[in-house]
What we know:
The protein is of the alpha/beta class. The protein folds into two domains: 1-17 and 230-277, no CATH class; 18-213, Glycoside hydrolase/deacetylase (TIM Barrel, Alpha-Beta Barrel), CATH 3.20.20. Helix content is 31%, strand content 21%. The protein has nine helices and 14 strands. It has helices at 32-42, 66-69, 90-108, 124-132, 167-174, 191-196, 200-210, 221-232, 270-275; strands spanning 9-12, 19-26, 46-50, 74-77, 114-116, 137-139, 160-161, 183-189, 216-218, 235-236, 242-244, 251-255, 258-262, 267-269. The strands form four sheets. Strands 2, 3, 4, 7, 8 and 9 form a six-stranded parallel beta sheet that branches. A three-stranded antiparallel beta sheet has the order 1-12-13. Helix 4 links the parallel strand 5 (114-116) and strand 6. Helix 1 (32-42) packs parallel to helix 7 (200-210) and helix 3 (90-108) packs across helix 4 (124-132). It is globular, with a radius of gyration of 20 Å. The protein binds zinc ion (ZN). Zinc ion (ZN) is lined by residues 26-27, 78, 82, 118. Zinc ion binds at residues 26-27, 78, 82, 118.
Amino acid sequence: MTEGKTRQIKFLFPEWRDKALTFSYDDAQIYDRRLIDIFNQYGMKATFHLNSGTLDQEGFIPSGEVQDLYAGHEVACHAVTHPYFNQLSMAQTVAELYEDRAALEQYSGRIVRGLSYPFGEYNDRLIAAAKNLGIVYSRTVEDTMNFALPSDFMRWHPSCHHDKATDAFMDDFLHPQGFRNLSLLYIWGHSFEFERNRNWDHIAHICDKLHGRQDVWYAANIEIYEYVTAMRSLVLSVDGTMLYNPAAVPLYLCVEGGHVLLEAGKTLSLRACSETR
Ligand SMILES: [Zn+2]
């Protein structure tokens, strides 16, 4: 057995932030325009899950507007026709996902890898198909009412629907009682709900309360996925003195109380590190 103590390595989010905030909005109705105005005003980052088959219909965002409207945010899949996935054959499942990805990539000019489940329906066959078709994460509608990182990105349970984002809940996120490491607040919903319920002031209030903080990383769903996946891919030598980051994003670490930036694709010797300090 190798002797020596295990070093305490703590992860932080980019720029040494210990909290992350992400939003996810489904269906691409025209009210996404007003929602994006609010998000942009407050510097928020969000993911928009679009049904490529309903774009261009009355009340929905035109496909020709996707690239400009969602610039600065993430465009992700929500299946072509917003189906009940538990009713579909494998062939239909594959078509719903693959054609949606292809269309959204064409409209947005970007690679699309995210999904949210229409009606919150998912099953093992769907998840297997989605992964095989290049989808790396998918959001459910099962609110955790906590700030934990997802254990399985294909069953990514959000913190809460925006209706449940109360001041008390947001205060708990911003000012935890006791120790909490790496917390993620994930809020989801539909922009048409603000129109229907005449409560646009609610999302403005959420943004006002949570924006512009040095301790919060504002990120789209895919950025959270990439960072957390990179964290989980960190390679350590047996004695814990060498760290290798095989991922494509830099990792922000706290080792024995000091900040260590581990660049993408780089190996770092902590022994050499501490000697030069
Ligand atoms: Zn939907």
